[in-house]
Amino acid sequence: MGVLTVGKVLRFDEVRGYGFIAPETGDEDVFMHANDLVGEKYLYQEGSVVEFFLEMGDKGPKASNIRLVHQSTSHQLPRGGLAARSAAPAAGDGEVSPADEFAQELTEALLDSVGSLTGDQIKRVRACVLELAREHGWVAS
């Protein structure tokens, strides 16, 4: 394994499965591939802070074992709850629904607070909480 490094995702194309990370050291951008992600692809978006092992690939610097670095303030709800937050436009395909935004934030919060949950457990908890939020009108579909 290479050197543990921190950086920000410059861009990541979920469909193609690759992107680039700008290391905080200011060195050359690092190639990232979906096969090296720890977690679901949709969580890795432009500006996400990640830690990874920096290795030299055939074509230059390459990241492996890429993990999101979560800031605890990122999970605080805005005043008025989720309904007060407007959906941010997604790259190239309209708007992100409040339900999708809620599901993403919930996933990140679960990963932060209970690191021992499996992916399947997180999906089941997320589905249950999302359904509850919809029933109460806390989040629209």
Keywords:
141 residues, alpha+beta, OB fold (Dihydrolipoamide Acetyltransferase, E2P), 2 domains, five-stranded antiparallel β-sheet, 2 helices, 23% helix, elongated
Structure description:
Residues 72-98 are annotated as: Disordered. It holds the Pfam family CSD. Residues 77-91 have a biased composition (Low complexity). Residues 4-68 form the CSD domain. The protein is of the alpha+beta class and 141 residues long. It folds into two domains: 3-68, OB fold (Dihydrolipoamide Acetyltransferase, E2P) (Beta Barrel), CATH 2.40.50; 73-135, no CATH class. The protein contains two helices and five strands; from the N terminus they run E-E-E-E-E-H-H. The protein has helices at residues 98-113, 119-135; strands at 3-13, 18-23, 30-33, 49-57, 60-68. A five-stranded antiparallel sheet has the order 3-2-1-4-5, with no helix packed on it. The radius of gyration is 16 Å and the shape is elongated. Residues 71-92 have low confidence and may be disordered.
